[in-house]
Q: What sequence folds into this?
């Protein structure tokens, strides 16, 4: 079996364990699957992160443990000569939203999100990539190469007829609004960085750069006000597409298009060379992107560069919390004057314990009161909630805990750092969540204008 991801870190997993039941084929990927010990912790229904598809369906078949059994059957030859093309395996994997809840809460940290990427890549190799997955995965490139797509998305969102045609031809749910690209994407100045002791590299992801540039501008303003020299990452001058924004490849990765994700990762690593050489912090905004750099990218076979990036990259709130602990922040924040805030954490933030940093940063705003919503995945999960066949269950996931909590506090400001989370909340209850960078920018006592040389 040819692997699409590097599973060598599982080389010794399960050896000598009576429970492991390592499949006959699949090599280290089979060992990654077999770390499940069958304790059925994933088949529980209390609040929390663990498996939203099981929680909302109530069907054991849609739990991580059942997916492990299906994958073992496939790797043991029980599903025929082409197991990754088999409809039975597809049915078992279909409702996994890649939330990484099982990696945190499973006793043996089954990484079903990464396993799903490998499964999807294997299925793509066997059956090809659907037009819908090509569209959603390639959207960051397409929006740059064909800017008129932004207007087409807006037209589709306003036209029930076009939405119905999109569902018929592509399988995109007509009942859903598509995220609207910004009229003017975030474009940092093309200035070579002059590095100093307080230099920080800001990684503006696809979602902030192309869809919500105000978040990138807020982050830049906050870091500048805190006393840092902010260098916004740009492609190298000799890049094949020097004007195309950098991308970590998350959209490709989540849909099993691993080669394209690896290509984007290499492009990003090349642009990160000055940061890696200097050891300067790399700060990012979108949890799914930044935590991919620390986790999933290590399975792309990119060598020491990927490991160095993983050591140097921080979520925005992680960096702020760290610098506060080091007493390096040079700002003043105004007292909080709004009602208590409701905070929804991105699944990947929860899975790696990054919510602690968010809690610490919110406490820096004088008088800020807040409550973390105890909820599983919001259900949007990238493009999952936009699929025609998944739109209803996506909404049901949001209705488990998240949307009822928001409706119970209609005047509460809302914080959600995930792009998909904000989309689900806006569509589900008409609220307008904001990123932590925006709330901090609003709290600055005397924000200074950004220097023209910041780049």
A:
């Amino acid at each position: 079996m040819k692997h699409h991801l590097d599973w060598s870190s599982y080389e010794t997993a399960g050896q000598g364990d009576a429970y492991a039941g390592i499949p006959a084929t699949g090599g280290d990927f089979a060992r990654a699957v077999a770390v499940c010990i069958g304790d059925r912790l994933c088949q529980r229904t209390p609040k929390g992160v663990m498996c939203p598809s099981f929680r909302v369906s109530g069907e054991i078949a849609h739990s991580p443990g059942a997916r492990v059994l299906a994958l073992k059957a496939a790797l043991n030859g029980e599903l025929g000569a082409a197991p990754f093309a088999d409809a039975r395996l597809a049915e078992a994997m279909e409702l996994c939203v890649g939330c990484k809840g099982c990696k945190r809460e499973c006793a043996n940290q089954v990484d079903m999100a990464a396993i799903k990427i490998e499964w999807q890549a294997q299925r793509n190799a066997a059956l090809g990539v659907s037009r819908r997955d090509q569209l959603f995965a390639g959207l960051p490139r397409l929006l740059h190469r064909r800017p008129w797509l932004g207007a087409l998305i807006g037209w589709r969102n306003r036209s029930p007829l076009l939405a119905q045609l999109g569902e018929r031809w592509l399988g995109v749910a007509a009942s859903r609004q598509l995220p609207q690209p910004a009229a003017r994407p975030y474009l940092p100045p093309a200035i070579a960085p002059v590095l100093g002791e307080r230099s920080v590299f800001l990684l503006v992801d696809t979602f902030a750069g192309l869809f919500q540039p105000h978040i990138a501008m807020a982050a830049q303003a906050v870091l500048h006000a805190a006393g840092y020299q902010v260098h916004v990452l740009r492609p190298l001058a000799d890049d094949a597409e020097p004007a195309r924004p950098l991308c970590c490849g998350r959209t490709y990765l989540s849909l099993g298009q691993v080669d394209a994700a690896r290509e984007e990762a290499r492009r990003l690593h090349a642009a990160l060379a000055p940061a890696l050489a200097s050891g300067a912090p790399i700060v990012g905004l979108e949890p799914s992107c930044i935590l991919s750099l620390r986790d999933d990218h290590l399975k792309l076979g990119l060598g020491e560069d990927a490991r160095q990036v993983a050591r140097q990259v921080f979520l925005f709130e992680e960096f702020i919390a760290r610098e506060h602990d080091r007493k390096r922040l040079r700002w003043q924040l105004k007292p909080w004057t709004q009602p208590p805030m409701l905070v929804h954490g991105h699944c990947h933030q929860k899975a790696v314990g990054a919510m602690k940093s968010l809690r610490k940063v919110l406490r820096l705003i004088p008088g800020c009161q807040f409550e973390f919503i105890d909820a599983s995945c919001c259900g949007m999960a990238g493009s999952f909630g936009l699929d025609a066949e998944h739109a209803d269950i996506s909404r049901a996931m949001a209705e488990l805990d998240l949307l009822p909590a928001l409706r119970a506090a209609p005047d509460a400001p809302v914080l959600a750092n995930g792009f998909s989370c904000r989309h689900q909340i806006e569509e589900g209850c008409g609220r307008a969540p904001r990123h932590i960078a925006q709330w901090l920018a609003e709290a600055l006592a005397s924000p200074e204008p950004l220097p023209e040389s910041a780049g």
